[in-house]
Amino acid sequence: xxxxxxxxxxxxxTEAALQLADRGVRVRLFEMxxxxxxxxxxxxxxxxxxxxxxxxxxxxxSAAGMLKHELSLxxxxxxxxxxxxxxxxxxxxxVDREAFSRRATQHVDAHPNIERIVGEVREPDYERAPDAxxxxxxxxxxxxxxxxxxxxxGADNLAFFDAAAPIVAADSLDESILFRQSRYEKDAPGxxxxxxxxxxxxxxxxxxxxxxxxxxxxxxxxxxxxxxxQPIEEIARKGIDAPRFGPLKPVxxxxxxxxxxxxxxxxxxxxxxxxxxxxxxxFQTNLTFSEQRRVFRMIPGLEHAEFSRFGVMHRNTFxxxxxxxxxxxxxxRSLPSPTFIAGQLAGTEGYCEAIMSGVHVxxxxxxxxxGRAMPSIPSASSFGALLRYATDxxxxxxxxxxxxxxxxxxxxxxxxxxxxxxxxxxxRGAAAFESYVAxxxxxGLL
Length: 446
Ligand code: FAD
Hints:
By secondary structure, this protein is an alpha/beta fold. The protein folds into two domains: 3-163 and 314-443, FAD/NAD(P)-binding domain (3-Layer(bba) Sandwich); 167-310, Elongation Factor Tu (Ef-tu), domain 3 (Beta Barrel), CATH 2.40.30. It has helices spanning 11-22, 63-73, 77-84, 97-110, 143-153, 199-211, 232-237, 289-296, 351-369, 382-390, 418-442; strands at 3-7, 26-31, 54-57, 86-87, 92-95, 114-118, 132-135, 158-163, 167-169, 179-180, 192-197, 264-270, 277-280, 307-309, 313-318, 339-341. The strands form four sheets. Strands 10-11-12-13-9-14 form a six-stranded antiparallel sheet. A hairpin with a 4-residue loop joins strand 4 and strand 5. The longest helix has 25 residues, at 418-442. The structure holds flavin-adenine dinucleotide. Residues 4-371 form the MnmG N-terminal domain. Keywords: Cytoplasm, FAD, Flavoprotein, Methyltransferase, NAD, NADP, Transferase, tRNA processing.
């Protein structure tokens, strides 16, 4: 029986483990938690979500929606767990994070081909001669392993700080001020709670936000900010109206108290199926905890908010994929066993992207150890486009990235209308991916 060692039971590692185990491969899945923690994980289970509970849009004509379609065609085990753990979130897929991790852990622990081993891996155990190694230790890879990776990669890992949004207890919110509504759906019950600002209350809030005390001021470098998770105070620093055109945009909302669109609005999204906690959408921050309590209680309806979790700052570790990894995310270095990198450490960004990289690496590893040719993932698909970008040696100053239409190969003809253009990307990607799936099946990989 072939053996694969996987380091990290996060999103990518858990998915890869289940995929390989389902194909009859013996997997040793190493996870350092709970023996060694990270600054943000709180549990001991597999596939823990560390920030938002959203897997983003389900809309087929969005890059995030395309990725979900691809995950489902490849039979992603964690995507199935996400669907089974979903909570209401309008057109997005959001999950009850505990139920999601519990399901994933149950699948892993019940699998006869997976051995889950708790403990920090400081470097792969090549002496046991695994048929392949997958490193999926994520953006918070332990220092010892990061040092080993940096040694063999021949280049330094990049480490930078990232920001996570606070979570507030539902029963501490003033629902006489907040209103429940999804954007552009004022007549439907709505999945979000919205905190409406008047112009005066908004300006007072922004003043307080930009002058509030922050942590990690010295190490914090704007150029290194994780673009998709930029701290709210950094956005506010760009100009008083910047948040109003970003996370606090009021478009598509009408406050039932006035019948009008508010000057600005904070959206709160349920964290769990019971709706007992809400996160402040787009409110990743590095304000000190006491300042978060003071400043965020200036948001209308949050005057008495109790914080279940404050926003925090994080390190983010990833390799410079271009020139280091091939399209199958295999390290192009001579190592005792073929070694692959999956998840955010490989330079992808986002929950679904990490899961998809777990599927992709599992298929690549399986093809390799079974001596079969791995079909090439089409660049017209959402994940194929991301891989093409991430592993292109011509890419300069690579930063982790979500799937997005900006990195898709251009359409044969220019489509001016944005909605039609996105639909064309999605249709082309779906057709290409279906052919890819057929090739995987023909090769006996799926
Ligand atoms: P992880 O899910 O982090 O899994 C890696 C696992 O490896 C962890 O369980 C860790 O304990 C373990 N590990 C680390 N080192 C070792 C070692 N030496 N030995 C054994 N085990 C080890 N993406 C989104 O789409 N939405 C978000 O809201 C979002 N928020 C984020 C917030 C933060 C703070 C960070 C850092 C990233 C965020 N991301 C977000 C990006 C990314 O999607 C997630 O980090 C995602 O979990 C990455 O999946 P992964 O499998 O690569 O890593």
